[in-house]
Amino acid sequence: MSKIRIIINNKEKNINLLNDFLFSKTLGERGCERETLYVINIITGENFESLTYETNEIQGLHEGNKKSITDVLVTTNNGTVVNIESQIAEQKDFHKRSHFYNAKISSILLRIGQDYEKLPMTILINILNFTLHESLEDYHTTFKPTEIKNKNYSLDDIMETHYIELPKFRKQVKEGNINLDDPKIRLILLLDEESPQELIEEVLKMDEFAKSIYEKSAEVLQDQKQYLAYIRAEQTELDKKAMIKFADEKGFKKGRKEGKKEGRKEGKKEGKEDKEIEIALKLKKLDFSIEEIAEITGMPPMIIKKL
Asked: Is residue 232 a part of any domain in this protein?
């Protein structure tokens, strides 16, 4: 059995299980509990026994946006809330965004009038198609509140955040530094569209849960409407990347190390004010937040809101 191939922009590609639409259809809906539970337990090292899906609409995460959609949001049998997010396009300060999600989810799920002791433990799993923590070598890092002097003392009942950085994982794959006996390795190989075909085939032979996830995704894509929704989601990501690249090349985002001020200054020198507006309008249509558009174009948030 080989991995499904998809034609996008006349190019044959592996199926992208981290595609927003397909990821939610494969792991974020009723009927997928078994596979979703497996993914959560493998990544967190926990042993949750069951889960229920929560509504994945969170109101007002960004000013100017009506709502934000989480990819997978569940409550486990012991009351822990787990949010799984796949992020394809690179975002600066993504760790801040993820902690904001954690806090927002906790506040929403704490019912009015309930004591703070009812505040659920939240676990956020981020699967990233970019490198976030440059100074850390591990592709999978975990963060939780700890006491500065006594690192072994942590607040285990508040929040926990996992980051899986695919570029670092791919480096290990390329170097042959992986062990297929590790179920986490098998899972990430399956999720990453850049995994070599021969490794995917081995994973599907070895791992019944990986095979089940694969088959569910294949079943989704057999439906013409759902296939088109998948293609649209892929195209949206390609458009986002193209817009960010265009902004980079025009000097609107000259480089994070040189700072936003220099990027704006360079753009103005080249007389690109009209292009800033054009890019901002296109990014708004692609559902970028006001803050993200301001970061890319250098335009003041108040101006962007009025466009």
From this structure: no
End-to-end CA distance of the chain: 50
Say if residue 158 is in the same domain as residue 273.
no
On whether both 157 and 48 belong to a single domain, the answer is: yes
Whether 129 and 269 map to the same domain: the answer is no
3-state secondary structure of 222: coil
For residue 236, tell me if it sits in a domain.
no
Domain membership of residue 245 (yes or no) is no
Report pLDDT digits (tens) over 220-271: 988 888 888 888 888 777 777 666 666 666 555 544 444 445 444 554 444 4
- In angstroms, the CA 260 to CA 273 distance is 15
Q: Which residues pair with 277 in a beta bridge?
A: none
Q: Are strands 122-128 and 159-165 parallel, antiparallel or unpaired?
A: parallel
Q: Which of 116, 38, 117 is nearest to 72 (CA)?
A: 38
- Per residue in 66-77, pLDDT (tens digit) is 344 457 889 999
Is the Cβ–Cβ distance between 247 and 286 less than 8 Å? no
User: Mean of the per-residue pLDDT values for the chain?
Assistant: 79
Phi then psi for 124, rounded to 5 degrees? -115, 125
The domain total for the chain is 2
Question: How far is the CA of 7 from the CAs of 14, 153, 213, 230, in angstroms?
Answer: 9, 50, 21, 11
Dihedral, 31, 35, 36, 39 alpha carbons, nearest 10: 180
In-domain check, residue 296: yes
208 and 268 share a domain? no
Handedness of CA 260, 266, 271, 275 (dihedral sign): negative
- Greatest mean pLDDT among 1-15, 70-84, 146-160, 201-215 lies in 201-215
* 44 burial level (CB within 10 Å; 0-12, 13-18, 19+): middle
How many Cβ atoms sit within 10 Å of the Cβ of residue 102? 19
- What's the average model confidence in pLDDT over 201-218? 91
Domain span at residue 282 reads 250-306
Among residues 173, 192, 225, which one ends one of the domains? 225
